[in-house]
């Protein structure tokens, strides 16, 4: 039976990524060796790393603009620490927008380093919207925001223009929509949504902002050291980087970020239209801030939960129960999800309406 | 043609790990989903993580002795930082044995935190031996050593008994020989030698030593937070952890660490005997400190290099050029390497002797 995988992450990836990466485990590049047993310094893997780094920049329109792409370990959670270590001056300050659980985690780590100003927060409304109308202290060393909030189903549609470095955690919507990415000085993203399997983190850094904090930075947390070592300061996560490259190659063949954005818009429109039309459901997030990646919604009457759950399971859907912070349902529609899978969910919602 | 993979790491793994992990990428546990697209919170992956953690302790004889096993990200290089963050008191000191490049890297990171005493170093002899006869300051917060030095081909055969926590980087020889592992309070190891593919790091911690440094530790670097979260503080490297579990299961079926130690001893004896017998070669490391994992050796006459290189390549051997710090050759014979592959190398060495 066909599966419709709505997991919030790690999540659905293109079938060709599964096919090609399974093949590379048995025989990589026809070398007679598995991708799991080759040196990260081997010519074949250095080529993988180089292509993944340059393709990430190309897909975001950031080639030849002073940026470097790195594939690091530790997830976005380690970047919560690396960002202030590299950018916050001794006795300086940082400005953070608190739009959800992960933004809040980033703020917590920044507080170890110095004054951390939360310019706005939607915590009181259980993060059901993106805060707006805030001002950022002009003397902050940098501004940090989170472009998409997986748990709450909200997504930033606009970003401020500021005279300071802008850092953005794009873990859950990178490569899903066209933005002027050159507005940002650091973009980071755990691979496990639109880029690849769990185990590597893409970090894109504008080189000119580094080396100004005056801090002594432990080697493994120092972006300059990782750039100098061409993302091989220590052994990278070979297989996750390779599978990420396959996913980026698939995206390029599809037509790049602009092409997938159209598909993502169509999927989101299809589902949100049904959430708004169907009298049994309501959306969880403020309409103007709705995420095109993660749609959060609730049954108006919790008494229908068991019936609905039985119906979507029978349709081959998995991964849509909502996060415990929100309840209800969360349908994650990352790049690799076909619109046909969204139609299956919409059909189940319609069928529930008829059945009740 | 059969390949004989002597790569120093990432390195050879058992064929059944390749077969089973490729299958799991196409269809994991007959779920119809790939291991690359499932949530780390799914029942099936939680079971993988739990089994990997308990099997690691079981294979080292550390169950029910107050230890916890974690699969973290960032490699041994991040542990260089986490160890002092968690163990070195404010104004305290740490004692390190400098036996090679990685030990030296660990020392460098510790110096960010406080007084770091190098109790002994073999750096002056290009790390061709393990320093001995040192004394450790009684007031150190912990003692750190590196059990096997991949680059130089040396291995600690004895460990000191001390009234302080002992921390050991066992990245390149964990699960290869029987030791009294309960002598150690923290053992860490990047997966990519005897445990699995690159991308995850095993950290084994004796819980009672934690929480005593008085430091405020960033969340992502805090062993106590990782233990509390059962090694899921943030998204783990799902596939590398799964492939590590497969490797540990293979080792258990083989008879565990004692069984593989016999095989490793036989492989090392076969190769070192030839290095010592064959007048064309000499070993690079002090005989009493020779590593059973990485045998470093040189041609007595560099003029034979081209001939030898042509011969081993023709025999299907790969990965034996030595590290640039030592030169010559390095044959890495990790757990998964069959003795037949070592015999092929020995035969090439004998053939060279005849040819010259």
Automatic annotation (TrEMBL), chains A, B:
Pyridoxal 5'-phosphate binds at residues 76-77, 102, 150, 169, 192, 234-235. It is an enzyme of class 2 (transferase). Keywords: Amino-acid biosynthesis, Aminotransferase, Cytoplasm, Pyridoxal phosphate, Pyridoxine biosynthesis, Serine biosynthesis, Transferase. Binds 1 pyridoxal phosphate per subunit. GO terms for molecular function: O-phospho-L-serine:2-oxoglutarate aminotransferase activity; pyridoxal phosphate binding. InterPro entries: Aminotrans_V_dom (IPR000192), Aminotrans_V_PyrdxlP_BS (IPR020578), Pser_aminoTfrase (IPR022278), PyrdxlP-dep_Trfase (IPR015424), PyrdxlP-dep_Trfase_major (IPR015421), PyrdxlP-dep_Trfase_small (IPR015422). One of its GO terms (biological process) is L-serine biosynthetic process. Its EC number is 2.6.1.52. Residues 5-345 form the Aminotransferase class V domain. Pathway: Cofactor biosynthesis; pyridoxine 5'-phosphate biosynthesis; pyridoxine 5'-phosphate from D-erythrose 4-phosphate: step 3/5; Amino-acid biosynthesis; L-serine biosynthesis; L-serine from 3-phospho-D-glycerate: step 2/3. L-glutamate binds at residue 41. It is found in: Cytoplasm. One of its GO terms (cellular component) is cytoplasm. It catalyses: O-phospho-L-serine + 2-oxoglutarate = 3-phosphooxypyruvate + L-glutamate; 4-(phosphooxy)-L-threonine + 2-oxoglutarate = (R)-3-hydroxy-2-oxo-4-phosphooxybutanoate + L-glutamate. The modification N6-(pyridoxal phosphate)lysine is found at residue 193. Its cofactor is pyridoxal 5'-phosphate. Belongs to the class-V pyridoxal-phosphate-dependent aminotransferase family. SerC subfamily. Homodimer. Catalyzes the reversible conversion of 3-phosphohydroxypyruvate to phosphoserine and of 3-hydroxy-2-oxo-4-phosphonooxybutanoate to phosphohydroxythreonine. This is Phosphoserine aminotransferase. It comes from Flavobacterium frigoris (strain PS1). The gene is serC.
